[in-house]
Design goal:
single chain; Aminopeptidase; Alpha-Beta Plaits; 4-stranded antiparallel β-sheet; elongated
């Protein structure tokens, strides 16, 4: 697969070289703009000119982090910014989500851009003027930046309505962090009226240098399933364990057995991760526990691996139930498919961006419910470089932060996609 990417990259470099000779600038790029450093993407002057707005919006959003389906202040703020750049229609979807539409005169083609807007249960420790004002909540995954990008794009569209050649839908999605916000947005009509032909999304990514876009065609992010396992035993006094069925011991046997599901049942060349992140059970130190609940996630890159592993988990539960007398239940919560970028869309994307601005990324085990949109319409997901500068912490860390000028490169990419339809 890497070789195919390289072949396309080489062909695109020849194409861009000819464009430089013929026109003096790159198609879809920043004519009359300037380079923000030799290694960074060329940014159009209109994008450069909104940096102050970029900082103001991002800082405002960062101060008011809210959890999934509770983003009421965030919703209100986004709507207030959109009022400055009035869309042709605005709807509230999925409780706190927003769909804004800009119509191009005479166009029957529609492209959508999606940003997530929820935050995490994290206490921010950064000592900055825009620090979270909501105790125990923080934009530790950069969703404030994603929403900022779409609001800045709305500003550019509003100022250049006469140049708009395609209908544009901006989707501000709640509850990306494990609560299925994408499913609710789709069910509420995010991709209908107008019917979306293509959709784009991006995520700030500290492992990609600022000024670069990380992308690949094919599998990019894992399929994930969040599930709970309940073990039921019989309570008894700790001094008389023979009168009970120990749910703690049964759960320990299951945890140990599950490690072999990955190491002995899955092809080592296939990506698969099983994590039991939380376990809770028992009532006292001298009482045999009658119930244990385990919260787990499974991440894979194929439906075959998923079916295999879920089957093995069920089989192990059955075997340990026979051996211990305990009863086991499994309950699957949300499942998100793999982020899978269509090759033809990624190749088309190469027409709007210099290959020197692209980083070919490896597939990652992180999951993204943007994949739910890809099940409905063609779309590509990309990583927006956030490495360097004041950022030195990973995603979901209480120290996470980034330079706001990183967002301008995301705006620039979206600007090119809009202008080229």
């Amino acid at each position: 697969m890497v070789y195919l990417h390289c072949a396309v990259s080489f062909a695109c470099k020849i194409y861009y070289g000819l464009c430089r000779i013929a026109t003096g600038f790159l198609p879809g790029s920043a004519k009359d703009g300037r380079k923000k450093g030799d290694s960074c993407m060329q940014i159009h002057k209109d994008v450069e000119g909104i940096f102050n707005d970029c900082q103001e919006i991002r800082h405002s959003l960062h101060r008011i982090p809210e959890l999934g389906f509770e983003e009421f202040k965030t919703n209100k703020f986004i709507l207030s910014v959109l009022e400055r750049y009035p869309p042709d229609s605005v709807e509230v979807l999925a409780v706190t989500g927003i769909k804004a539409v800009y119509y191009a005169k005479g166009s029957t083609k529609t492209i959508a851009f999606r940003a997530d807007i929820d935050a995490l249960k994290t206490d921010e420790v950064n000592d900055v003027p825009y620090k979270s004002r909501h105790e125990g909540k923080m934009h530790a995954c950069g969703h404030d930046g994603h929403a900022t990008i779409l609001l800045l794009l709305a500003q550019l569209i509003h100022k250049n309505r006469e140049k708009l050649v395609v209908n544009v839908v901006l989707l501000f999605q709640p509850a990306e962090e494990g609560r299925g916000g994408a499913y609710r947005m789709i069910a509420d009509g995010a991709l209908k009226n107008p019917d979306v032909d293509r959709i784009y999304g991006m995520h700030l990514w500290p492992e990609v240098p600022k000024g670069k876009i990380g992308i690949r065609w094919g599998l990019m992010m894992a399929k994930t399933c969040e599930f709970d396992m309940t073990v039921r035993g019989i309570s008894s006094h700790g001094a008389s364990p023979q009168h009970g069925v120990d749910a703690v011991v049964a759960s320990a046997l299951l945890i140990t057995a599950l490690q072999t599901a990955i190491t002995r049942n899955v092809d080592p060349h296939s990506g698969a991760v099983l994590t039991i992140g939380k376990i809770n059970g028992g009532v006292a130190r001298n009482v045999i526990a009658d119930k244990v609940v385990m919260n787990a996630t499974l991440r894979v890159f194929s439906q075959q691996a998923y079916d295999l592993l879920m089957g093995r988990i069920s089989a192990m539960m059955d075997g340990i139930a026979v051996a211990t007398g305990a009863e086991f239940e499994i309950f699957e919560h949300l499942t998100f498919p793999c982020v899978d970028n269509p090759r033809h869309l990624v190749e088309d994307f190469y027409n709007y961006i210099d290959m020197s601005d692209v980083v070919l990324v490896d597939p990652v085990m992180a999951a993204e419910d943007f994949s739910c949109y890809q099940q409905e319409v063609p779309g590509i997901f990309m990583f927006l470089g956030a490495g360097g500068g004041k950022n030195s912490a990973p995603l979901h860390n209480e120290h996470f932060d980034f330079d706001e000028d990183a967002l301008l490169y995301g705006v620039e990419v979206y600007r090119r996609l809009v202008l080229n339809g």
